[in-house]
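User: I've been going back and forth on whether these two constructs are worth ordering. Before I decide, could you fold them both?

Assistant: Sure. I'll take them in the order you sent them. The first construct and its structure tokens:
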Amino acid sequence: MPTRRLVKMVDRNAMNLRWTFGFNLESMVLVDLTAEGHLAMFYAIGHTGVIFDYEMRQQRLLQGHTNTITCAATSDDKKWLATGDMGEKDAMIIVWNARTGVPVRSIFDPHIGGVVDLDMTPDAKYIASIGAGPKQTIAVWRWTSPEETPAAQHDVISRDLQTCVKFRRDDVREIMTNGSQRVIFWSWEDDKLKFYSPALSSKEFSSPVGKFTQSVFIPFSNQAVSATEDGDLLLWDQVLLPALDARPSDRCAVKLLKLHDGHAITFISVFDSFLVTAGADGFVRFYDLKFRLLAWYEDLDVGPIASLTFTSPRATPKDGGYLEGEVRIPNFIVATKAGKIALVNAAIFEQYSKEERKGEVLVQGFESPISAMCAYPSSSKLFVVTTSGMLRVLDFESQAWLQQKVLEKRTPTCICVNPNGQELVIGCTDGSVLIIGVSDLELIQRMSQIDCEITSVQFAPDGMHVAVADAHNCVGIFRRERNVLESGKEVPWLYVGRYRSHHGRIVGLQFILDKAAGIIRLVSLAQDRVIVEYDLSSSMAATGVVVRCAITIEETAVPTALLQLPPGCQQGEDPNKIFLVSANSESKLKVLDIIGLTGVHDNRPLEEQDSHCLQTLLGPTFGPPPHRLLTLPPDEQGKQYVVYATPHKVVGLIKLPLDGNPNCSMGLIAHAGEVAEMCASHDGKLVLTTGGSDCGIFLWEVDPSALEASAALGGSGIEPFEALIPGGKGGELYDEMLDYFYLAQLRAQGEDTTEERKVTGLAPVEAVPELMQAFGYYPSKFEIRDMVHEVRRKGKDSVTFSDLVWKDSCCCQP
């Protein structure tokens, strides 16, 4: 393949974001971007922004942040969109062209800890942002200038964390911020910020003032209002007789208005000549600027409202126009804590029927964090369970939400689908194991023999067994066998038993179809560094679970994931044998040959024990070590890949066969925080990932050609591994390694010999440990045993320099 074409292919990503499901519930970001006839809005899911054309049902995905997007604002003409994120490092403010989705300016590290909130002036010339702390600052950015520093900045002299910032729309030299207890008024001139925070006494009003949520200026007046969690509005205004230490322009609290009875006002804004409030009661109310109620929307039926944005103005009636004095309420969109974004046509206010006064759902999301998910084995169905006990079924190809069911009084933790597609098994925090029919989502059987949280569930390939791992480091087995409960009810699943096979958290649980032996095997791997195989045929309800073998595979590193390699995947190995791969905390992948062994914990001296490690390879190093490994089905050319996920942020792809080549793997920032779960479509062309707490799912399209191009450009043979050595080939360390290798050959021939020296290019396998120590890596006896075994199992008793370079790069790299 020509080099120029390879370079173009490398510029592409091996995994490309295609669609998103859900949106952020904690930091509810919603901005209308309707312009030039396109009905669009912006919302965020994790660190990804979504411009959603809800008329054409199309998403434009904005990728650039690495932390969760917490805030967004747009100019009045909807051309410019500013987004901010919050995180310990790499926080950013990005300004986008909202019509093309192209970033035009990035402000790096605008505040320590990121951005809590931001606002943009109507003409888009300035952005005001408030930092996350711990030392909170407010800044005004002239983002169109090339300067990296803000036009004005000031420390927030208040212990109350400010969470909302708003420009005064008719005079952008004034800014208002609020926390839960304090409101601060800012003014800036000559690139300097000044502030005034009026004192607030509980004795000033007949009822106590609740915690503040949001604030806004009333245009063309000196007034401002702050909303509270008690459903009140606190009115700020200039007074004729200010305090002695106050300036004439300073404001003070003058009135407490009760608008949402007992429910938090979560959104407040001024649009045209309306003051609009929305609350946790699910109500939206429109007032004039003298706080007289004009319209109310109390039957939207979409849940507690967290954010609101105004869209296209209300259409002119067909009969020619509005009546004199008629209130022209604009259409609007609301985002709710129930995981819905809904469009509200202002005209429904005039409808008599309650059913006709509901909002139209534009985006269906998740009402709580996602616990687990799994894909249907032969179609594009996806099963998702959330921490609130909701089971949802969606089609990730058509983006349709198909079914849902509430799992009464249960908090799911894991889910798996039967390979025949007829049943689901769900594990719960209380130890319950639920078998549910796929077609109607009806409960088939609930099994409650386990008394602690279920952490993993798996169906056997033939659907005859279910295995579960729990928080007490036990493995439980259920068999499809009709039996009668004590109550007299006949059920299809029999509880075989439970065995505490580990003393560390179980990180891998897998059924294996052994075609050669004609049986199905079950193995588990835990952080105690032990891999266990169970004897399913000998495990009975009367005798319990039987362990076939238990083997220690690590000495110091901690296992993080387990994977079965496809048959014949590893070059030079028996295609009929089954090999497992374990990932560990040192970013290594170990290829293991343990299937079919017998015996529990070899107590012989280490030197006499057998090694079952075929290879120790360098794993992906784009983030933390992988905690999820999944083999994708072969592509059209018969090539296979492994998709992996790390506990934090990163998802990637590894080319098979495994050889430790760093150019044969890739990784990207897929989520702002944890990567809780992942699964793949039945054809392996799509991968789905979720961050769990971000209440969203990302759909990735796999493009292996980019990874193939990276591997081709990285060189062949030993070249990629030489590049891992500090200084590369010909560097000081490389030359020193070569000298030690020649010394090992001389010592093998005898240091005092007078015979002619022969440069064979081979060093005895016994010299490998000393050579590794000379290279700066000090292997333990356990690792030495595995190293020697890797060489001798191939019928060799010596190694080449290339072998040592490969081994050094695998061992010494993190």
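The second construct, handled the same way:
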Amino acid sequence: TTVGDDGPPLMLKMKFLPYMVRTFGCRNGLKILEQKGVLGFEQYTTNLLMKWGMSSTAINTWRPFFSSWGSYANEMLQQNGNQRRKEGGGKGIMTQNEDLPPLTAQNYLHHLERFNKLFEEGKIGSNNCNAQSKNPCDFRGAVIVVSLNKEDASVAADLLSASLGGCRRSSNVNGISEDDMHLAMSPVDGGLVVDAVVEDGFGALRKHCKKFEDAIHVVLVGCDDEVIDASIDISMRDKKKQKGMLKGWRKCKCKTVVDVPQSCFSTASVGKDGSCDGDVDKDPSSLSESDSEELPALVKKLITLSGSLPKADERPGALLFFPGIPGSGKSTLCGAVSTESLCAKLDQMDAHMNDDGKISLSKKEGANEKTGESNSNFDRPVIVRVGDAVKEKYWPLVKRERLEHKPSLYVADKNSTPTVWNTIAEVCAESRGVFAPVLPDSAALSTTTLMFAASADGSYKREYVFPFSLQYLAVCLSRVLQRPQKSHRGKLDAATDNACMIVVKFFCLYKGLTADRVKETCEDMANEAGTVQIGSDTFFITVPFFVDNSPRDLPKDLHDALVDAIQLQCKVDSGGQADGAPIMSEIETRLRSLITSHLDMLQALTVSKEASCESFLSQIVSLTNSLDSYDISGESKVASLPKIKIVSIDVNATDVHHTLKDAAASDSSIAEFLDKGGKFDPSSIDADEKKTARYIKDTHVTMVHCSRSSQHEMRQRFGSLEGSELDVVVNGFLFNDEIAALSVEIPGKTLGNQSLDVPPSENEFAHITVWCGDGVEAVKSNSLPSMVEKGLAKKVDFQNRVSLHGVLRFWLTE
């Protein structure tokens, strides 16, 4: 077989590799490698194996293969010049074979054949994989490698990172966050090495030195005055500036500042195990701040200084959060949590280890309900963070506090809708915490299915599911309305004009999830992020809500009002209700009246606050006892996946505009639209500048947005399709003076011999947004069909339908 020929001979040689592994792991994973590096690729392939339902044994068997392919392919892509080095850790493991073409998705099989031979012969494998993803680092803290130019600093930082055991790498000294420092202090996450140039300055570093002084080290590489004076590439003025800034670096109030010559790094080499060649037995104490020494002595000194840091408490903790809606009793439960209340509960309970590794509790015989002074020692920090009292962004604050207090029992007093579950899982993974959702009982967490009209004449209806019962919604509404006026910190009480519809809006944020899917999604997100697991399952805390497992049906008038409110909110959320304010006001008044009329009945449905708090505290004690018995030896941590913003079918903008020009030739209204004000100018197409009228540069069909689906669901439905090609069919054009879009039909199959099923779009109106007016966001295009029905926009149906070639892509957040 010749290079470039992917015919039968090569395919037969690769037959031993399953099709799914080759195509979706090795080929499609190349894009992940370019975006997220080796660690992101390893998580991507682990996620694939889990999604395919493989056993843990099979997953562990395949992971070394994928890890090695990731390292090999990453080197090949770097040699192609397609990717700058993003991770530290040693020299290249492989050099480009002149007989092979550059590694791309089109010719990856040639490289896979070569790789497999090397892998089978043991020439590439676990010893050559990125040390950062395999072994804990020997060093804790942060090292800032400063040089006169970026290239020298980067080379030195790469070598030092590898020599220290595979520290994380960064090239932005002024972008180091407090979270980065907490991670650098952890023996599990393995230090941080940052490259910088003298001119970057140490101002941003100064604030971290106040808190982490003993964990920060500065290494000045080739920064002697003689070296600066000998340079012929910079002016005398710049030389003077560099010398002045170096004085500041040398006075930095950190653990140590060390000067080393550039030759220290240019002559050193790193072994396969990440060790540095040289005299590692050299006395590190001989390396003073003014003397220049070899790299091994520097490494030994840094590790020695790192060992003098206070031992980090690496016990796993827990993050409790509340998937629910306002009025569910969340703040009442959180108010019951304190070190004192948990100690008192411990005194009342006997703990027993179950077969699954979890702790069950039973009441001690003769235990006093009110213990007075506690005999128990609850030695974990207890943090209850009230969302409405936080002035900054809530979840970044939670992450920072969890990283600083990893063993803590952290209670997030904030309604946590599905859009933030992935963020919470990532926080748990990075801070070694148990992902612990707090849910109401099965009578409240009970699927509600409603049928709403999806067309103007009501001939077509669409099914909507929600994970909570209508009784649960009604009780939550009654509790919000029972709050005294202007008493609630979050300004949601009886004085709030649209209080009922705000609660209904929260209820609708769970649209598309059944009760079972809430738990399944939480479990999958915890597994994907790599959170600490107690036993084999996610640790759910279930709080009693209703007195009976099957609460009585709601009165018909209240039931109908709730259904009408949900239907209206769903229309508003999907853009199908242009101005819902008047109707919302009417339904708000109706709900308030009916809740007041049936208040006694609603209050009789639920258990007492005392009973809920009692159960809640008991389960927290069970969780903390399980944490205390948790064996951290052999624990493995998996990097979290990048967050998906949307799943889309990307189409070429030029093809879109050619389609419009062709349509304009046979329809004067489209021609008038394109010509009006000189709007049509493909050469001036720009990114989405929302303040100005513009054509959309990145034309696409949105299949699903992260606000309407969990990260897990998006990956589960579309993960195997990423990178697949397909043709969408354009059947019309909808437009007015504010927004314009092509309506399209999405095929049921991808293109190619191995065609795959394509799930339908989450958008009721499948379209390609083409143009937006001044100050108009692209999302408004979802409302075009309803605007056409109301005469606020025009639709032109195409007699000759046009196919546009597209590729299914994941748009990742920054």
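Notes on the second construct follow. The radius of gyration is 30 Å. The chain is about 40% helix and 15% strand.
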